[in-house]
Predict the structure.
Amino acid sequence: MTGYLLRRLPSALLVLVLASFAIFAILRLIPGDPATTLAGSDPSPDTIAAIRADLGLDRPFLAQYFSWIGDLLSGDPGRSYLIGGQITDLIGDRFGNTLALAIGALVLMLVLGPILGVLCATARGRVPRALLGAVNSVSLTVPVFVTGVLLVLLFAVTWRLLPPGGHQSIVADPVIGLQYLVLPALCLALPGSAVIARYIKDGVLQALGEDYVRTARSLGVSRRRILWRHALPNALPPVLTVLGMQVGALLGGAVVVEALFAWPGLGQLAEQGVARRDYPVVQALLLLLVGVYVLVQLLTDIAYALLDPRVRLG
Amino acid sequence: MTVTIDKPAEVRAAIPLLAAHDLRVVFDSARGPVHAVRGVDLDLAAGEMLGIVGESGSGKSTTALALARMLPPAGRITGGSVLLDGDTDLVAASEAALTGVRGRRIGMVFQDPMTSLNPLLTVRRQLDEALRAHGFGDRGARRARSIELLELVGIPGARLRGYPHQFSGGMRQRVMIALALANRPDVLIADEPTTALDPTVQAQILELLDTLRRELGTAVLLITHNMGVVAERCDRVAVMYGGRVVEQGPVAEVLSAPRHPYTAGLLRAVPRLDTPAGTRLAGIPGTPPDLALPVLGCAFANRCTAAVDRCRTEQPDLAPVTDTARTACWVPSTEASAHPLEPIVRRAPDPTSPVLEVSGVSKTFRSRGRPAVSALTDVDLVLYPGETLGVVGESGSGKSTLARAIVGIHKPDRGVIRVAGKGRLAREVQMVFQDPYASLNPRMTVGDIVADPLHAQHIGTPLERRARVLELLERVGLDPAVASRFPRDFSGGQRQRIGIARALAPAPSVLICDEAVSALDVSVQAQVVNLLAELQADLGLALLFIAHDLAVVRSISHRIVVLREGRVVETGPADDLVAHPQDPYTKALLAAVPSPVPAAMRAAEAA
């Protein structure tokens, strides 16, 4: 396993390097720059030029890139131009909140996806099957900002069960914290759950047709046990790949959900950073996102090995 | 199920353990209902081994599954009964009752040991689950029983913690048998349990089943297409055709004096190891009935040479022909019909200059983290124009690697492969593959498939290619009009003819047949083997005929090469090699081939 991870290291590093360059370049392709924002309303060209020089934005593109990378390698992602403060502090303050949201969403995804998937695979009769299919399609296709609003309308406005937005620390008060977490996490988890459900359904259906399931039936193993012990585990490996990709989508979705539910996380920070062209903040956040994604992919491969003895033992 | 206890012993003895009566199964398909089993009567007594033989589509596997109500979702039992102990009708039983019967009263062993075990669970877990399903003892007792079961089937108990992929095919089948026997069932249904295995492993597994039957008294229902297996292992045999049992009786009687023309034809079509090289195999002309269409009269009538008018209008039922045997035929033959051996018209190979020379070829496969595998080591062989060289050996012997090296798919590490003739290797050497279903692209028409090598090698104009395709289809015995149809419309034998036409398209000098007839039923296999022999005689082709069935190889080959673990262990003229094998491995291979002649009859022949 260690050897395997070591072999994967160069390609992971390469992804990070390429991504850092792409992030850096793309940000500078967006119209407008931080100097214009900083200069306030109706600035003179000289003011803007002065600010640009002050921020180092007048230097050649590659020189800017390498000084950013150099600082990063020495552990300093820099200061925010506009929000103010060290980026490490900005991220540090919000990281926990987004982590809580992401973990909450992931847990919901891992619970809802398989349940929905197995139900879809085993549903008998036209009506239940059509209903489950509809639930799945709706979760998959309706965008997060629509489901978010609907969830708030239902749970916060109509039924008054949960707060419509905001954030309370889970560590300080788990009960209150969870009440604030449920809606945004659910909203974030729905599309991914639908994707997972889809793969679980196909995988379970395929596994139920496999020879080893026939063997288990011939031995008098109960239907329920066949489903949960034979079919579902064999349906999981492809789901893992999808799950890895869904984690990426989760982080992207967090930007919208955090804005929607006033959740003070990295997504909110990213949104502010982009709106104000705060290059260092956005660069750091995007690179962090890529890093998390690369890590998740590695974890996916490890999970594969844990699930399947043929991968583990060769 | 407790009712039987009240009955006196003599009544119980007369009641068969498992009896199917007028069993009918229908499968839903896109083409409408397929009547796969059309009224089957079978009975199985305690401790006996009953063989069910028949070709693909005869309904033998479906019958086996239906007995334990194990049909896939598309299939359903539409009539008849399956009585266990004479009083429990499994066709009417509840799903819960069936779960109690499966594994506990009826165990099953399936064909493919590679896919029949759950790859994610250890052998121990799977055995444990089987035992737990019927409430066998506590954890410790189940563990002890699991070790006992493994040892019963000849696997060291220490391997309990292994995963299926860590076992060979034969070992997996042993595990499968251990699972099936876990709860000491009275009946074991084994559906082609050795078909996916090498002959020597097949012999071991059959021996194991036989021993277990004797020691545990388990009744065995053995489904097979192999007449040799029936002859050597079974007490009684039921022959199935078109979803019905057409003949049933003691093995010695049915195999030596078949009453039904289909049984007789099947026996003639089976290649026998003692048949000299160059003998024409007797196929059964025609194809099995399409069970999606209504069958009028006897299903075999349109392939039967003895058929009379009544056969085409009225379905015969199983009726006694002797004290012990029954047959479903309006015109059963009354005496054993010996059939004369008919030689194939063959040209003698031209031994002046070889068309293919393989010298000192070695190939090793390496992959990370695993020991290197020497697939071929210093292999030498020559092939002359018009000659058939048979290549035999078990799985892993390097047969397919050799074929692939010759056509250029694998580059040998050492050694030379020389092909005579002006053309490039890719044109001079063509291949016919094993699986007639997987080796034809389902989205291409037959015409495009056959023309494919012509396209690939830029031979001819579109018009010339078209003419060539039609000529080739006719050559392999197909109607040229089929060129515009798709592979799905054809049976396995017809598909293999298409594969042969494709291989012949660029007019090669060497044809490599890699297990090209192994997947076919015997009656069809004979047709294809005869076609290959005819093509060779007409076109002067050199054939490299790779197969694991020694009898088929002998019948078609001039010379035979025996491969073992990538090395040539013996080579010689076909008849000599089979009659007087020198190498111990060749002897073992030959000894493992079950003969389709019952032992009693063999003794009579020898006398």
